[in-house]
Amino acid sequence: MNTANAKVKPSRKQRVHELYNQAGAEQAFTFGRRLHLKDTTLHSWIGSWRREAANSKAEKVRARTEKKRKANVEAAPVEAPAEPAPTTTTEVQA
Length: 94
Hints:
- Helix content is 63%, strand content 0%.
- It is an all-alpha fold.
- The chain has a domain of 64 residues.
C-alpha cells in the first residue's frame, strides 16, 4: 500500500478549527457536538483559539505603533538646544 499518495483525512480538531475560522465559534461548537466531542473539549479549543487571535491582534497593533514611533523619531529634526536669552538689568542711579 502506497501511503504517500493517500489523502489524509483531517482530524476532528482541524475540521472544527477550519469552521471556527470561517463561520465563528457558535457554529464550530455545534459542529463539534455533531462530531461527538465533549463540551469541555470544545470550550477549551475555542477559548484557546480566541485567546490566540486576540494576542495576534495585540501583537499587530503593538508592532504598528512601534513602527510609527520609530518613523516619527527618525523624521523629527534634531535641533540644537536654544541658548537662553540675554537678560538685561537696569541699574538705578542715585
